[in-house]
Design goal:
Strand order of the largest sheet: 2-1-3-4-5
CATH topology of the largest domain: Rossmann fold
Low-confidence stretches: 1-7
Order of helices and strands: EHEHEHEHEHEEHHH
CATH class of the largest domain: Alpha Beta
Strand content: 15-25%
Shape: rod-shaped
CATH architecture of the largest domain: 3-Layer(aba) Sandwich
Helix content: 40-55%
Number of strands: 7
Distance between the termini: 61 Å
Number of domains: 2
């Protein structure tokens, strides 16, 4: 029984019109033990189609081609698959071009005459995208937790409020219903919060507030 062929680690889409340049890059990648498959295009139509059909996990684009260019490819990639690393390859040593590439969202800019720098550039771009995806996922989870927490508070039968640095940042619906006051009114300079607390409950309320205050360093 034959073992299944493992999926390649990288699906590289080249936007390149010079076949020898692509071959030189692929040879360098193999020498550095990269496991990949690749496709190459040199027109906008082919590039757009390959984003859908090939589903690249890395894009290496020449800066300038006869009918297409790296900036156009970068714009399309940023619109369609912004999580995929995009590295611009060029034969031109021009600082303005490098700034333009990075400003428009490229992960890096590599001179073809110094192609060895492509190896650390790819590693860095892939790690940067992984970190970004991880951070976005954590943010989504935090937002989801916050939403669930707020829903529980809103649905509570109790009147609930939140204070931060002596300023009200949240009150639930029951709070507004019971005390006939909203968040904006609570934060008015003229408002005295104890005015809505029954006299017999005032001391207990003040004690509860004092205990609830988070001390610095705790």
């Amino acid at each position: 029984m034959t073992s299944p062929i493992p999926n390649p680690q990288l699906r590289i889409l080249f936007a390149e019109d010079v076949s020898t340049d692509r071959e030189m890059v692929e040879r360098l990648l193999r020498q550095n033990k990269f496991d990949f498959i690749s496709e190459c295009v040199d027109s906008e139509q082919e590039f757009r189609q390959m984003l859908v059909d090939f589903k690249p996990t890395l894009i290496l684009s020449d800066y300038r081609m006869p009918s297409f260019d790296g900036m156009k490819a970068l714009k399309i990639a940023q619109d369609e698959i912004p999580d995929v690393p995009f590295i611009v390859l060029t034969g031109s040593i021009n600082e303005d071009i490098a700034v333009e590439c990075m400003r428009n969202g490229a992960d890096d800019y590599v001179i073809k005459q110094n192609l060895k720098r492509l190896i650390p550039s790819i590693h860095s771009a892939i790690e940067k995208k992984k970190l970004k995806r991880s951070q976005e996922e954590i943010q989504k989870q935090l937002e989801s937790s916050d939403m669930k927490y707020r829903m529980l508070i809103e649905q509570s039968v109790d009147a609930i409020f939140m204070l931060l640095n002596n300023k009200f940042i949240f009150v639930n619906h029951n709070f507004e219903l019971w005390f006939k006051i909203n968040l904006e009114e609570l934060n008015s300079p003229d408002f005295i919060f104890t005015s809505i607390v029954a006299e017999e409950s005032l001391k207990e309320f003040q004690n509860n507030i004092a205990e609830a205050v988070i001390k610095p360093g705790t």
